[in-house]
Amino acid sequence: MSNAVSSVLVTGAGKPGTSATITALRRSGYRVLAVDSAPEASGLGKADRAYVVPAGSQAGFVEELTRVCLHERVRAIVPLVDEELVDEELVAVWELSRLGIQILSPRLSLVALCLDRLQLTEVLRLCRVRTPRTRLASKGAGDLSFPMVLTDRYKTGQVSPARVAQDMQALDGLLFEHRAHLGRLLIQEHVPGPEYSVSVVVWRDGNVQAVVPKEIVYRKGAAHYAVTRRQEALTQACAETARVLDADGPISVRARLDAAGDPHVFDIAPPSDEDVFVDGECGGGRSPRTARPGAHRRRPHSEEQLARRHHPAPAGQWRLPAPACTRPP
After folding, report:
1. What string of DSSP letters covers 125-136?
2. What structural domains does the chain harbor?
3. Where do the record's region annotations for Disordered lie (predicted)?
4. Which of 47, 91, 180, 257 sits at 20 to 30 Å (Cα–Cα) from 41?
5. Distance between alpha carbon 284 and the CA centroid of its chain, in Å?
6. For 253, phi and psi rounded to 5 degrees?
7. pTM of the predicted model, to two decimals?
8. How many whole angstroms separate alpha carbon 135 and alpha carbon 171?
9. Which 8-state DSSP code applies to residue 116?
10. 152, 159 Cβ separation under 8 angstroms
11. CA–CA dist 251, 114 (Å, integer)
């Protein structure tokens, strides 16, 4: 058996949760390289090798990433910063696939759709996916029903965090507060039920390999804490959403359950640092994008700790290059 270990590169090493992704990959036997534009990025110290590169919006990012990949013989890239996936300059990152490097993300057109919430909700409604009704804030609430949420249309260059209004007076106050940016904000009907972040593992053949619903139970800043739960209706809805969107890479679906238990999809994104869920005992979990089918199972320790119950995936091989041998973390 060869002693060579497959090398995987992770971007956005300074984002919350990236350290857990790096740790999970290393425990699975991969040699991990991490890159970030900030030398103090926390994830850099967790990787086998680390590089400080230009920011994704700066000239030279693609060239430096290419140099690192060729020098380190990288076999796959796990991009964890949405902006890196859609910037015109960074479309060239996908050219690395011609060198045999796999980009673990959906195609660029799907990523671009997911980053525009208005277009995304319109497409979902056309595909008959249950989603909250949505309007541009500049057009007012119209016939939408309360409660409503004021949120950004675009996921890049965000104007305001999502804020819920229970009545017209509260909504008018929010609209007045953000009156200079109404063209970049959306008003959306708010489903007052449990919120889920659902990891859907899909690859180029379009087959859904796993669906992992995680109920968000606590938020702190950019991070959220979640418990993995079995929700059959939600699992089916997210698998169908991936199918109608013709997803060809892993996606993270955000949804809420209404009083009847019906799921309402209100956001979709390529997996990012937010897709890493935090375990109360060990401090970090595996991102489903890097999990091989059936490989991620743990016995829950108590009701208070964050449980992990992975839905069994259909037989098949996840496309992340398998490690040639295992190594300790």
Report:
1. HHTT-----EEE
2. 7-104 (3.40.50.20), 133-189 (3.30.1490)
3. 280-329
4. 91
5. 16
6. -105, 130
7. 0.74
8. 13
9. B
10. yes
11. 10
